[in-house]
Amino acid sequence: MKIALIGYGKMGQAIEKIALDRGHEIVSIIDVSRDDSFDDDSFKSADVAIEFTRPEAAYSNYLKCFEANIPVVSGTTGWLDQLPEIEERCKNGEQTFFYASNFSLGVNIFFELNKQLARIMNKMSEYNVSMEEVHHTQKLDAPSGTAITLAEGIIENMDAKSNWKLYKEENSSDIAIKAIREGEVPGIHTIKYESPVDEIIIHHSAKSRHGFALGAVLAAEFAAQNKGFLSMNDLLNF
Ligand SMILES: NC(=O)C1=CN([C@@H]2O[C@H](COP(=O)(O)OP(=O)(O)OC[C@H]3O[C@@H](n4cnc5c(N)ncnc54)[C@H](OP(=O)(O)O)[C@@H]3O)[C@@H](O)[C@H]2O)C=CC1
Ligand SMILES: O=C(O)C1=N[C@H](C(=O)O)C[C@H](O)C1
């Protein structure tokens, strides 16, 4: 499969290694620090583009892929205000777009566990739910895309919760998400239910970026064969 990489930072480089190991070809690398462009024939020859850049760059990159009719796998977080427009462009399989706030298999299992726990806790009014995410200091967005997906999973399943917010103070009816930036942490997400007598905690910690990058390449293989707006639920059949 011919892959175009858009963004050649920490994730772009991790994805390149795994894609090559799986027998794919990288035909174009578009990044601030490189000369390849969306106008090149090499970019237009790609079967799929994988985009990991920064929140404010992502949407216009997706449109450039759509102009060339190239399916996009998107890992960039922090741009979701524009998601409805992308979904619209994918109606009737006109364009193909695969988005995940987190491509790792472990986190996607954790997403399901989170929803199941929220369903159980729905009737347990003595417990208050809160969340913490920890990432490396270069991360631009807060809270993480993964934390937002986790909060949405709780909101879907708990009648008492309808919003999330970045943690500032205790005693809010919203789900408070504390975002911590330290060192080189690849990504840690923790959900805590606390009552006056105990705590229930579920926790996912990534040991490296390998799981995110492998999931993105698997998603690219899937997006090259399927049409429309795609997600990890389509890939994993959860
Ligand atoms: N969904 C998932 O599983 C995961 C998502 N992410 C998300 O992916 C994104 C990228 O993460 P990461 O690789 O760690 O970030 P990095 O900063 O390491 O890499 C991003 C790269 O994109 C480049 N870039 C910036 N603007 C553009 C543009 N307009 N076109 C092309 N390239 C551009 C940057 O250049 P420069 O440095 O010069 O700006 C940089 O080289 C983040 O939003 C992060 O949250 C990360 C891990 C997993
Ligand atoms: O920026 C990162 O590094 C990560 N971003 C994603 C997010 O915002 O959830 C996924 C992962 O946690 C790493």
TrEMBL record:
Which cellular components does GO assign to this protein?
cytosol
Known Pfam families for this protein? DapB_C, DapB_N
Name the catalysed reactions. (S)-2,3,4,5-tetrahydrodipicolinate + NAD(+) + H2O = (2S,4S)-4-hydroxy-2,3,4,5-tetrahydrodipicolinate + NADH + H(+); (S)-2,3,4,5-tetrahydrodipicolinate + NADP(+) + H2O = (2S,4S)-4-hydroxy-2,3,4,5-tetrahydrodipicolinate + NADPH + H(+)
GO terms for molecular function, please? 4-hydroxy-tetrahydrodipicolinate reductase
Domain Dihydrodipicolinate reductase N-terminal as annotated: residue spans: 1-103
The alphabetical list of record keywords is:
Amino-acid biosynthesis, Diaminopimelate biosynthesis, Lysine biosynthesis, NAD, NADP, Oxidoreductase
Known EC number(s)? 1.17.1.8
Q: Does the keyword Chloroplast apply?
A: no
Q: Which GO terms describe its biological process?
A: diaminopimelate biosynthetic process; lysine biosynthetic process via diaminopimelate
Question: What residue stretches are annotated with the Dihydrodipicolinate reductase C-terminal domain?
Answer: 106-236
Query: Could you tell me the superkingdom of the organism this chain comes from?
Result: Bacteria
- What metabolic or biological pathway is this protein involved in? Amino-acid biosynthesis; L-lysine biosynthesis via DAP pathway; (S)-tetrahydrodipicolinate from L-aspartate: step 4/4
Known InterPro entries for this protein? DapB_C, DapB_N, DHDPR_bac, NAD(P)-bd_dom_sf
Q: Which CDD domains match?
A: DHDPR_N
Family statement drawn from the similarity comment of this UniProt entry: Belongs to the DapB family.
Name used for this protein in its record: 4-hydroxy-tetrahydrodipicolinate reductase
